[in-house]
Amino acid sequence: MYLKRLEIVGFKSFADRVEIEFVPGVTAVVGPNGSGKSNITDAIRWVLGEQSAKSLRGAKMEDIIFAGSETRKPLNYAEVTLILDNEDQFLPVDYQEVSVTRRVFRSGESEFLINKQPCRLRDIVDLFMDSGVGREAFSIISQGKVEEILNSKPEDRRTIFEEAAGVLKYKNRKKKAEEKLAETEGNLDRVSDIIFELQSQLEPLEKQASAAKDFLHKKEELERFEVALIAYEIEQLYDKWKTLSAHVEEQKNKEIELSAEIQAREAKIEEVRWKIQNLDEGINDLQDKLLLASEELEKLEARKEVLKERKRNAEQRKAQLEQTIRNLSVKIAELSAQKESQQDIVGRHEQEHAALRDSLSEKRKVLSQYSENINEQIEALKSDYIELLNQQAALKNELQNIEQRIAQNEHLAGKLEKENEKYLAERNNIEKKKAAVLEELAFVGEQLEEQIRLYRNEQQLLDEARNSLKKKERVLNELFQQLQKIKSRKDTLQEMEDEYAGFYQGVREVLKARNGTLSGIEGAVAELIQVPKEYERAIETALSGSMQHIVVDMEESARKAISYLKANGFGRATFLPLDVIKGKYLSDAQRAVITRHPSYIGIAAELIHYDRKYSNIMENLLGTVVIARDLRGANEMAKALHYRLRIVTVEGDVVNPGGSMTGGSYRVQTSSLLSRKNELEQLKKQLAEMEEKTSGLREEVQQLRNEIAVREQNLEKCRVKEEELRLKEQSVKGQLHETEIEEKAINERLSLYDLDKEQLKEELNNFAHKRVELQEQLRHCGEKIQQLERDISMLNKRRETQKSSKEMLVEEIGELKVQIAAKTEQLSHAKEKLQTLIGELEEHKKRKSCEEEHLRALIRDIDGHLSEEARLEEDIKEKLGNKNVLMERISSLRAERLQLYTGIEDDELEVKGLKKQHKELSSDLKADEVQLNRLDVELENLLAHLREEYLLTFEGAKAEYPLTVSPEEAREKVESLKFAIEAMGTVNLGAIEEYERVSQRYEFLLKQKEDLEQAKETLYKVIKEMDEEVKKRFAGTFDGVRHHFCHVFQVLFGGGKADLRLTEPDDLLNTGIDIVAQPPGKKLQNLGLLSGGERALTAIALLFSILKVRPVPFCILDEVEAALDEANVVRFSQYLKNCSEETQFIVITHRKGTMEEADVLYGVTMQESGVSKLVSVRLEDANEFVQQL
Fold it and tell me: Which helix (H) or strand (E) holds 967?
């Protein structure tokens, strides 16, 4: 099978109908960004059953319909048809060609077709299930899917392998089997409950059946015609009752099963809701913990960065100090060498100077032997003069040198001062910036704390609202159930009231005809009175059959009614004309006798309520009936009245006139005429109150739901705002960190300035002292020169008069003095230079000692930073691990919550449908029960009449008194007989058959229970077999893919190693899959450390490995090689070409290497704005055409 053709119309940017023909091999789709290439992939994914608009890069499903452009109107539908060549019968359908069509309209309606025949979405999904080409299969790799494969969790990554192994159908079957198992267990529980209930019914039913048989055998005598007629009517009614009873029982069983199923579903839904609530609480707790962990981690990271910066600055400072110390050591060595050399020079100059001095002394001694003359004095003075001039010149040179050094140092000091001012200005700016950042950080921190407080408050309010909603919904459900029961009971009683159930046939027919055929009918006595509940039993006993007497306005109305009964054969009735009946009253003496008795309650006529127009009737019936508290008190009052009145107790015991007593137990009745009427009125009031209460509670529930929706929106807004503030806080902290680093650098520069300034200041002070000394020496030297000039001038004046013969000696002395002066100057310079070198040497030694002390302190700081950084690194790893665990747990809980939400929606829809069925069934059952109650009442009345009047059962009456005449004739005979008024109880004649029916049902349910238990065991066995098959298939597929993955990885990477590993090898049903890759020339490392291209190529290698194990008919790749370089693209395209012999490839690409290996090239363009067009080139045909040219 292969993809033959794709037809698109109105799908996204494809406004016009486009047909794309595909051939076996490689088909490439190219085009600029935004031209609509990936819409082809989306179209194929959509037609294969994709339901998520987000997966199709839209917000809702209507977004895939062409939305119009500047020149075109929007379309109203989108349609995609996929035509597949199925000659190899790859798909399980008897067609050589299979077409799948999907159509969606803007109204939201969708249509699905297989070979142009309407079908369901499920049919399309089932058609492609486990074929490798479904909507979630590995045959369609969209943009980002490659990265998703590597970034997904190991547990999520196994989905691709399951699809390749073809186990999805087994997983779906297992899911259905588990659902059926849960249903079977529920049915088993319900059957067990019914069996338990039937067990409690069997024993009393068995006793009732036995009592009914004994009772039937004891009845022997009955008036022939009435008993025969009653037996005939009983027989007719009983047949109807039996048929209807069986139907009602069947309906009840259905209603019980349906109710049990609804309750089980609702319990399941409630349990899921409880789980969701627990998940929400867990997520909230974890989010709080994550928030704290993030804050702590951020603080540790900030401290770590500060330490790193300090460490880096310290290392730089350390390097600078070490370099400075090395330079100082070199300089000290040089100065020491220079000092030793200079000391040698000074010693040599001192020796030469001493020799010259000795020679001069000798010459002077010789000269002293001659008579001193003026010329000699002049020459001597000149010699001294020259020596002083040389000394002055030397001092001036040294002073000029000092002045230059001072000027240089002052210039350097000015330059340093300017730089210092610049650094001070920068530090001020940085301090201002830091203050602003700190202020902003404090402001953001306050906002964040306030936002967190608001978030927690909103979360608390939301939880409170949810809890309140849950409680009110539970109360509302209980109210609804109570309201439904009350409505059902009220409708039953109302229908019995409308049908006059419980009245004799004659009374019932007259009451039905009173608003039509008959006139003057006021109603039955039971209808015209209201009796307090505590006196119901006493009034019923007092009235007895009189409750069914009919009150009419006059005798004429009574005669007409009797004629109506005779004419229609409806039986008999007693009438009470208002214009004839007179009231009966107790005498004052009788009242006086009984009112003093403690058991006296009142006169019956005075204890009931009625319209005053019926007072004569009520006084006639109850005016002389006394109501007593107990039988003993009734006996005492009857005795005091000489047994002339009828006295009835509240329990229904009677003391008749004359002293006879009637009493005993009452059979249990569902409702009598009086109690039914009172109960109906009470139910109407209760129903109105509960409906009002339910309405109010429903409004409260709706308000709470609206409030919860608003609070959820507010909570989401708070969460988004909190995230924004956190990002802002991180940004501000980053700015603060940068500012602190700048501030530290400036402070270090300023510290260096202080050191240089001190050094310059010390040098300037030394030079100033030296300059002052030199200036003082120059002044003294100048004074001596002036004195010598005066002396020489004076001697020159005297020389004219004198001459000397010792010129030669003087010249020698003069030369010696010149040499001594020169040597003295050299010695002075040498000593001065020696002192300078000694001073510089001491200064450099001091500076080196200071720098070494700084270096030792800095090393101690670095060691402290290293230990603190190691400790911080451990804390960060621990906090980061805790944070990752919390994030994974939150993601897991959110995924679980989403899954529960999805399941609960389906369950609620099913429950809604079941409730609708239950409501319809309850309505039908209620109607049948009303009719059954009516038949039951009629049967009960007839049987009670037989039993109490003639002590006969139905069977006895039918056997001993067969009906020998027609029913009409029998009725005429019966009318002449005295009609029995008082009912004397009845026997449940259906007890025997009911016992047999319940017994049979009990046996049937026992067998059904065994069948359910067997089904349960079978389902467990089936689930186990499916698990084994899934393990087997998954293991085989994984081993195959793993084997091929190693080889394909080496081919695509040109070397290297790769492997697939199971996270839980012992749990093949749930294990995840880890991918380990080692590209050529690299160490084995985690996928997260690979480059983007390496990650993409690794995922492509995995895809090709799966295709090796599970070849698919066609595979669609959407820009999977986008991250690869040219060399890897070539390897990828060549491997793709090799694989195209087994699998058809449709590739969406921008890469030249991939295009070159394609058989057919389609170009997608957007010449018209917003509308995609298609052009195609068959590369083989194009190559042939080029060769022909």
Answer: helix 967-975
Give the other-Cβ count within 10 Å of 684's Cβ: 14
Are 575 and 550 a contacting pair, CB within 8 Å?
A: yes
**Which string of DSSP letters, residue by residue, matches 791-840?**
HHHHHHHHHTT---S-HHHHHHHHHHHHHHHHHHHHHHHHHHHHHHHHHH
Distance CA 178, CA 173 (A): 9
Q: Cα Rg for the chain, rounded, in angstroms?
A: 60
What does the alpha-carbon distance between residue 614 and residue 605 come to, in Å, rounded to a whole number?
A: 11
CA distance 1048 to 1104: 7
In eight-state DSSP terms, residue 534 is G
Q: Which two tokens stand for residue 792?
A: 């020489």
Q: What is the DSSP string of 628-671?
A: ESSHHHHHHHHHHTTT-SEEEETTS-EE-TTS-EE-------S-
Chain mean position to CA 16: 41
- Res 669: pLDDT: 45
pLDDT of the residue at 927: 75
Q: How many residues does the chain have?
A: 1189
CA distance 1095 to 150: 7
The answer to whether 124 touches 100, Cβ cutoff 8 Å, is yes
C-beta of residue 897 within 8 angstroms of C-beta of residue 279: yes
- pLDDT of the residue at 81: 93
Q: Which of 790, 831, 907 is nearest to 269 (CA)?
A: 907
Q: Which two tokens stand for residue 95?
A: 């067609």
83 contacts 99 by C-beta, under 8 angstroms: yes
Question: Checking phi first, is residue 985 left (phi over 0); if not, alpha (psi -120 to 50) or beta?
Answer: left
How far is C-alpha 897 from the chain's CA centre?
6
Residue 124 to residue 50: CA distance in whole angstroms: 11
**Between β-strands 550-552 and 661-662, what pairing exists: parallel, antiparallel or unpaired?**
unpaired
| Other CB atoms within 10 Å distance of the CB of residue 734 | 13
**Nearest-5° angle of CA 585, CA 586, CA 587?**
120
As a whole number of angstroms, the distance between CA 660 and CA 33 comes to: 111
Residue 550, classed as helix, strand or coil, is: strand
| Contact between 581 and 552 (Cβ < 8 Å) | no
**Structural tokens at position 756:** 């240089």
Closest CA to 962 of 241, 242, 214, 222: 222
pLDDT one-digit tens code per residue, 1046-1088: 888 888 788 888 888 888 888 877 788 888 887 887 776 666 6
User: DSSP assignment, residue 13?
Assistant: T
How far apart, in whole angstroms, are the C-alpha atoms of residue 18 and residue 34? 18
Degrees, nearest 5: CA angle 172-1103-36: 90
Distance CA 549, CA 577 (A): 10
Q: What local confidence, expressed as pLDDT, does residue 805 receive? A: 43
AA identity, residue 832: E
pTM (predicted TM-score): 0.36
Bridge-based pairing state of the strands 110-114 and 117-119:
antiparallel
What 3-state DSSP class applies to 374?
Answer: helix
The residues, any chain, with a CB within 8 Å of residue 31's CB and separated by 6 or more, are 37, 1163, 1164, 1165
> If you search the block for the tokens 């300090």, which residue do you land on?
310
Q: Tell me, what amino acid is at 127? A: L
Query: Which residues does the chain have with pLDDT short of 50?
Result: 211, 214-222, 369-372, 668-671, 801-805, 976-987, 1182-1189
**β-strand pairing of 575-577 with 550-552:** parallel
- Two tokens, residue 284: 């909230």
Q: Which of 452, 327, 490, 960 is nearest to 723 (CA)?
A: 452
Report the C-alpha gap between 996 and 205 in whole angstroms: 9
Residue with tokens 């960065």: 305
